[in-house]
Predict the 3D structure of the following.
Amino acid sequence: MLELEVFDKHNLNKAESNIFIVSTLLQLLGAIEAQKYFKTKNNILVFLFYGNKNFDESQLLQKKHLFDYDKLIIFSSENTKNLLLLNIALIKELKKYLYNQVFVGFFSANFRRFIANIQYNKLFLIDDGVYTIYIHDELYNPKSRLSNKYILPFSEKKRKTFIKKIRFWIFHNFRKNYLLFHGYKNDMKKYDLGFFTMFQLEKYGDEIIINHNFNFLKKMHDFDYLTNRLDQKLYFIGQPLERVLDISLDTYLNYLKIILCKYKDYKIVYIPHRAESLEKIKRITILVDKILVPDTNIELYLLENKKNLSHVVSFVSTALYSIRKLLPTSIIEAYILPIQDNVKVQESLLLTYKTFSCMDIKIIPLKD
């Protein structure tokens, strides 16, 4: 199925447009804040969907009205055989405009491919979770191997196996030659990437970092934590660690039991990540008082329901940081994952915990 849907709400000034390319609801929230902060006009919103229909796609389509767009483009492919044709179709559509500012929710090859083929003045990354922390350090920290400002094909492929890297490399080169044959670029060689982010990042050199606190979204939802009723339950934010860090389900459940034993006087609510399996959630059910599955992401859930949580706990969930931005007086705690056998993962986790601690998030060692 080849699908590139284009919806025009208003006429655009093609010489002074702004574009926001997103794939998740958190990215969309960052795009909303950026659009209001910069007061951009002639706004093009692109939903970039790869693979089968998923929760992210459903959420974005339901919440697209929150963004003040003049043109909406939906890139969606359920068949990888059509991806190259769909890439070219989107590149052709985007090349019709000149852009003042480009905002992307991810800096992977799938996003850079489109940036490489358009003309723009400034490029910003908006948040897609703690990925912002990692990519900023990887690209700008002078001690990083990539701080020479050249992008490597595998900069976002650290956790892939050798076989998957080989498969990626083969397809990467096939796609590169296919696009070159049709007169298009496959990737960027150099970049000047700014950050529009909720995270307090260490600044290196003359890079641009602009921080936000979800102020416009708070105003949009008439949200004031001081007037909202305080919820005294303990909320645990789940994570699919067995997928992203190869932590077994049994190990995850053991970690969870150790943590929850410290909060025996609380009513405990577990909020699963959208990628956590039904089997996993079923096993967690017997450990907590309630499983809460919001029909949106945690940030909008709090805003829409005027929630003020007294106590929130997790491991390295982005939600700990975003909740701190929304609820500055809540008790928020992050437990340190005891990973010793992977130096790169350990370094990334330590960087995350360091960033969290700067926002009055308590960092706690995970011990029996």
About this structure: The chain has two domains: 2-212, 220-365. The radius of gyration is 21 Å. Residues 162-181 form the longest helix (20 residues). Residues 2-212 form one domain.
